[in-house]
Amino acid sequence: MTQKVDVLFIHPNASEKIYQGLGGELSAIEPPLWAGLLANGMRAKGYSVAILDSEAEGLTVDGTVQRASQYEPRLMVLVVYGQQPSASTQNMFGASLIGTALKEAFPERKTAMAGGHVSALPERTLREEKADFVIQGEGLSTLHGLLESDLSSSAALNKIPGLWYRESGRPVFTFRAELICQKDLPKELPGVAWDLLPMDKYRAHNWHCFGRVNERQPYASIYTSLGCPFQCSFCCINAPFGGSSFRYWEPEFMIHEFEILHDRYGVRNLKFTDEMFVLKEPHFLKLCDLLIERNYGFNIWAYARIDTVKPAYLEKLKKAGVNWLALGIESGSKYVRSGVTKGRFDQQDIYDTVKRIQDAGIHVIGNYIFGLPDDNYQTMQETLDMAVKLNCEMANFYSAMAYPGSKLYQIAVEKKWPLPENWLGYSQYAYECLPLRTETLSGGEVLGFRDHAWQTYFTNPGYLNLLEAKFGKETSDHIREVSKYSLKRKFAVPLPKEIIL
Fold it and tell me: Domains in the chain and their CATH numbers?
């Protein structure tokens, strides 16, 4: 017996291809927050909704279609979402396969695609995919308009904001949807539909649980704010919003979400998915106060910037359960950072900020990017040298990618630089990964250096000694085992001998 619903939200799965062997036990399994927010928003407007999380359920394309057959929806929506902006594009690979299979299995059902990637390339998505509709923007008003319509009349569709559809086979765009204003967030997006998600399936990153790497569940992630006021050239966060924006739910509203996660689902490991949590004092400091009062015992990690973390914040963040802060250091070269509009801080600011955070008992995730437009082997080596010297408790090494919606994508198109052949090539860990080239290096040379940097950092005796001193031998042994894994790459170019030496 099928379940009738107005809308079925589907989170696609292609983790085996995206992460290679890392997709088994090492990678995190994140709740599809944007699907959860949209589902709850539509439910608040009186519509019946369901969510199918193919990734968490470990479903193949055929398995997803079979599970979708258990529902009878008016509209199926593939939410091409990522826990960081870049992941939306890599998830397009699975979304495309599932969208095609759904249309073949249920040709009479209307389908839509939404999310960051499709908002960056809406017309191309409509031309290339089997979806009947593409939703550009945050999506709530567009979905509301679709469900209020008959899903077919051009006269009705043309009045819906943020909608792309076909008329006589040609793409048609209506008009841009307005952003949800801050005062309306609790009404329009009243939290996540946690009850529609398989909450027992989600799993924290291994490093998030250093010291107890076998206790990664239960886990959840959550937005306390939306958007970002910064405009770093390598980031596509603003693509769904049509420009830089920052809005947040009031702390008194958010604390109810934390109560649900703690009391109903027993969550301890928690990620603040906000692009920049440590930003607006009335937002994050008040939220910290409420978390301290309730003493949930959360193990939280969140994003910050070198130029937003003030010493006065650190004690309160730690008391609230923020045990990890991720910092976008990006490059060891100030010249390279300035070329992508990444902050006005200098080298000493980076070292001083990391030390202050660690002295406060908070661990640091240093995020680094190799292959920014002004990078060469020398500047990438400077970045690696800085990473080793900082010796953060965790480091993420990325290759610069021209993500649709970012300034780097515009640069790549204008200069006719090579881009990945398919959306899987935008995944940092995929076999097909092809980073953006620089003025002096090919994408394959960048990728070769990135993989070399990762191996250098995680086998460095100084780093392993730090892990053992802070988290115990079990954690350092765990990383020794992880570092034995080598990603297979299609385009990586071996490093020149002088770099290896």
Answer: 3-173 (3.40.50.280), 204-382+389-400 (3.20.20.70)
